[in-house]
Amino acid sequence: MININISLSIKSFIGFKFFFKYLYNVKILVNDNVFNCKVAANPESIQKGMMGKKFDSNFDAMLFMMPDKKNQTFWMYDCLIPLDIIMIDGNVITKINHSCPPCNEKENCEMFEGFGNIVLELDGGTCKELGINEGDKIKTSLF
Length: 143
Prior knowledge:
By secondary structure, the protein is mostly beta strands. 14% of the residues lie in helices and 44% in strands. An 8-stranded mixed beta sheet has the order 1-8-2-3-4-7-5-6.
């Protein structure tokens, strides 16, 4: 198993974005929990995110590699299921937006914010169910 320290600066990680665009099986470890992630690393895949998708046997999380370390804003437009939206700075969870509800009308969608360079989306309620909290650290593996 090859481990990558997720705390690499996003600027040094940009060279891997082309690689990650085609990568499907990235594992994220939070505490003792392993999530199989689909990666969004380019503007189009970041913008589309979980719109019109449900988790399945191929992936149970979505990992967003953001272009900058800053306050990130996500919404749930055209999402099918509630999601936990987790903001991560380096390898530390800075904010968890729990069970964010889907919305179908752009003008009525709530915005969910937090600081970091990485965002992880899980099925709504997963963080509370598994005891994942702000301040927890994450690790990642390509295999």
